[in-house]
Amino acid sequence: MQEKSNRPDIIILGLGPGDPELLTLRAARIINNADKIHLRTVDHPTVSGLPDSVEIISFDDYYLEEESFELVYQRITDEIIRLAKEDPVVIYGVPGDPFIAEATPAMICNRAEDEDLVVEVIPGVSFLEPTFAALQADPLPQVTILDALDMQLNHFPSFPPDKPALIVQVYSQEIASNTKLTLMSIFPDQHPVILIHDAGTGVEKIEKLPLFEIDRSPLIKNRTVLYIPPLPEGSSLESFQEIIARLRAPDGCPWDREQDHQTLRPNLLEEAFEALEAIDADDPESMQEEFGDLLLQIVLHAQIASEYGEFTMSDIIQGIHTKLIQRHPHVFSDLELEEADAVLKNWEAIKKQERDLNGEGDKGLLDGVPGSLPALTQAETYQNRAARVGFDWEDLQGVLAKIPEEISELQHENDITRQTAEIGDILFTVVNIARWMKIDAESALRGANQRFKERFKYIEKEARTNGRELSKMNLEELDQLWEQSKTMLGD
Question: Mapping DSSP to helix (H, G, I), strand (E, B) and coil, where does residue 143 land?
Fold first, then answer.
């Protein structure tokens, strides 16, 4: 069997960032000795500096003939492989470096290996070197490099915002606009950013402008990249996890190091209720603070679990990530569900499938509801889950009719055990009424509690002002102050 020659069948070379003088010596030597070179595109400044003696064949027409970049890249790959089987050597040139922001070189290498073809890759100066030279910044160790074509499809930036990022292929105002909308989900509208155009060429330009203006730049073209300076330190989940890990380290905080899941349980409960209180007060400033305190508990539990070898924060996030995708096939797959009720019923069907797969087929629909939930919330959760499978009243009137029925039953009971049960039935029915009216019973009762507290404080204040003691006032006097409080504080 004849041994295969080491002579390459395909040479893939980088054309550099745009200035012909930035071609590597190796690439320039190969091009000068070539009769013919295939280019992914001729829309690159280096091409104008190639020797006139070299025949240039571009694949630009493929971009006009195909419906997607993926199809273009596949067609280029197929053609390079076909030519390599016929010609002594095929030279294929791409802008920059073959393996930085270029899809076809890797595709060609993979196909060539399957076809027993030899590929030689000639690295080039990429757009990154002149870009960071223009910024006068070192990308190490923190800069994240992203593709605007991916970024524009996201609803949230996929990098830690307290670290700088470079977004490439911002080649049109439409791409810039879509990318801007994604970034503005976390960065302020006025966040200062930098557009770098034609880095590594004689027409290189830098624009410093606020984020909301990037899609208004008339300079945007296929060699435009966007640099995003970071938000203040400590504004990413990763930075927060580092703080918690530092607190739990051997030289960290003695109190934090002593905690475990059980000792922190009261803190988690307290912070959850404080967050609910901020929501009930409709106070965004308090919500921000309380959500932070609640997040502290979650991350602290995750850090403790990682130290115990139980699970990590990544496990938590991946678990809920997978669960959400699996339970929303109408969003992440091709299932069509337009009504909220249909979504809930499908949700329960998916959860039943999951229980069957996990060997928990005997578990009931209500078994997953935590027993530690506040009673009103637990009642509403039971009712919602039962309703998802059709076990519900036909209308609100049917639920309302249960109230006098349950009260009548209570009035006819003398045994404390039965009276307790009937009181529970009345409360359960009231929760059902709230559910039908789209009112959260727990929040409604907390609101009533707060109103009672404020009105009673008014009664106490008025009594003190008049030099009276509550315990020595009769009910008629107290009731008069109560009605007065409703007028003064709002009914």
Answer: coil
Q: Where are the alpha helices (DSSP H) in 249-283?
A: 254-258, 265-280
Q: Distance between CA 15 and CA 92 in Å, rounded?
A: 10
Q: In the chain, which stretches have pLDDT less than 50?
A: 1-4
- What pLDDT sits at residue 1? 34
Nearest CA among 7, 17, 5, 11 for reference residue 31: 11
CA of 103: how far to CAs of 14, 108, 109, in Å?
13, 9, 11
Residues in the chain: 491
Superfamily of domain 237-311: MazG-like (1.10.287.1080)
| Residue 68: other Cβ atoms inside 10 A | 8
Please say whether the beta carbons of 166 and 144 come within 8 A: yes
Nearest to 194 by CA among 229, 221, 148, 143: 229
In this predicted structure, what is the pLDDT of residue 389?
79
Q: What is the pLDDT of residue 361?
A: 63
What integer pLDDT is reported at residue 247 of this predicted model? Answer: 95
- 398 neighbors 392 (Cβ within 8 angstroms): no
Q: 264: burial class by Cβ within 10 Å (0-12, 13-18, 19+)?
A: middle
For the 364-439 domain, the top CATH level (class) is mainly alpha
Domain 129-228 has CATH 3.30.70.260: no
pLDDT at position 491: 66
Handedness of CA 146, 150, 153, 156 (dihedral sign): negative
Beta-carbon contacts of residue 396 (< 8 Å; ≥ 6 apart): 433, 436, 437
H helices of 66-166, in order, are 69-84, 104-114, 128-135, 148-151
**Residue in the structure block whose two tokens are 């002002």:** 465
Question: Does residue 218 have a cis bond before it (omega within 30 degrees)?
Answer: no
Q: Which CATH number fits domain 10-125: 1.10.287.130, 2.30.40.10, 3.40.50.300, 3.40.1010.10?
A: 3.40.1010.10
* Confidence (pLDDT) at 12: 97
Tokens at 486, concatenated: 């409703």
Taking CA atoms, 107 is separated from 65, 69, 76, 113, 168, in Å, by 20, 13, 9, 10, 20
- Closest to 437 in 3D by CA, of 397, 491, 404: 397
| The token pair that represents 254 in the structure block | 């003695």
Neighbours of 342 (CB within 10 A): 13
CA 428 to chain centre: 37
Q: Which H or E run includes 410?
A: helix 402-411
Q: Which two tokens stand for residue 446?
A: 């907390």
